[in-house]
Amino acid sequence: MTNHFCFLPFNSLMTNGMVNNSVKTHTDIRSHGWWRWLPPISHPYIYISRLDRPIGWWLLLLPGWWAIALGAPGFTSMVWFMLLFLIGAIVARAAGCIINDMWDRNLDQMVARTSARPLAAGTMSMQQASLFLIALGLTGLLVLVQLPILAVYVGLAATPLVILYPLAKRVTWFPQFVLGLTFSWGVFLGWTAVTNSLPDLSLILIYAGCAAWVFGYDTIYAVQDMDDDKKVGVKSSALALASNIKAGVGAAYCLAVLLIAAGLLLHDPQPVFTGWLGLAAMALHLGNQIRMVRIDDAVLALALFKSNRNAGLWLVAGLMLDRLFVS
Q1: Looking at per-residue confidence, does 246 or 107 come out higher?
Q2: What is the pLDDT of residues 32-83, one digit of tens each?
Q3: Residue 267 contacts residue 323 (beta carbons within 8 Å)
């Protein structure tokens, strides 16, 4: 995701690991949540791994669930692999956020929304972050070894994309494309996990459609950081598209729906109707986002971005019902 900047000291924002509510500033560190019941020493780990904000792992998880629902031999195995992928998505997203914050810790100090992040604020050292990253990597490995060896190789193949994304926003106006390739990898991994075979053309089309979907929703996300990105020289598709953002996001979403539909049709020329209903509901949801998105409303942009969990879940629900009917 895009990062952004201001010069507020962390001590003015935080007290005992919690955000000081008396400071009125735009920050992505929330002052209240389930983690308030945990010892304050744990809070920097929660913030750096974004466990306080589940939307990221939801969006990482959904493409894998699509492929699992398509390829699982039965309903029971589908549910089992979905649970494994749930754990894996939470861990992988946390690891990706830590890598992102390691790259961006100096830039994050200059952005209001990110200045309170643990590495930028100094409440966590690089050594602590590195050890936490290793622990998450080992946890992810435990999930991977539950999968066929071919799926392990497919999962590890995404590592370069995870590492390269933080660099993409420094060299291209469309880092959202790199994120799309990364967040959509679950399509390949989910399919390989349940079928123990490499994806065919139908899954490649669904992967491409998913990448277009990610490009669209992350462009909407980047709207909230356009002003800061201009100041510090970080590139994004929101800045590149500017006043043409409706057309850009609209094109991405239309391409996403068409490619996913083509993939589903190629996968099964006569699917159970619920899968198509799920895709239709997703398409309507995306159409509403296109209608509402604006470049001058950061609050709306964040709300539209988060709503993509529901868009993806519509397709999950339809494909799961398909699997239930054919089991």
Answers
A1: 246
A2: 778 788 888 988 899 899 988 899 999 999 999 999 999 999 889 999 999 9
A3: no
Q: Tell me which of 23 and 210 has the higher pLDDT.
A: 210
Location of structure tokens 């509901």: 281
Please report the sign of the dihedral spanned by the C-alpha atoms of residue 47, residue 48, residue 50, residue 51.
Answer: negative
- Which sequence spans correspond to the domains of the chain? 40-326
Residue 60 in contact with residue 183, Cβ under 8 Å?
yes
Distance from C-alpha of 86 to C-alpha of 76, rounded to nearest angstrom:
15
d(CA 38, CA 95): 21
* Tokens 């989910």 found at: 190
**CA 310 to CA 285: how far, in whole Å?**
8
Question: Of 61, 67, 59, 57, which is closest to residue 260 (Cα–Cα)?
Answer: 67
| Distance (Å) of CA 73 to CA 76, 137, 202, 264 | 9, 29, 17, 17
d(C-alpha 62, C-alpha 151), whole Å: 17
- Which one is predicted more confidently, 309 or 25? 309
What homologous superfamily does CATH list for 40-326? UbiA prenyltransferase (1.10.357.140)
Tokens of 105: 């810790």
Exposed, middle or buried by CB within 10 Å (0-12, 13-18, 19+), for 16? Answer: exposed
Task: Supply 231's token pair.
Answer: 């100041």
Q: Is 71 helix (H, G, I), strand (E, B) or coil?
A: helix
Angle among Cα 305, 213, 236 to the nearest 5 degrees reads: 65
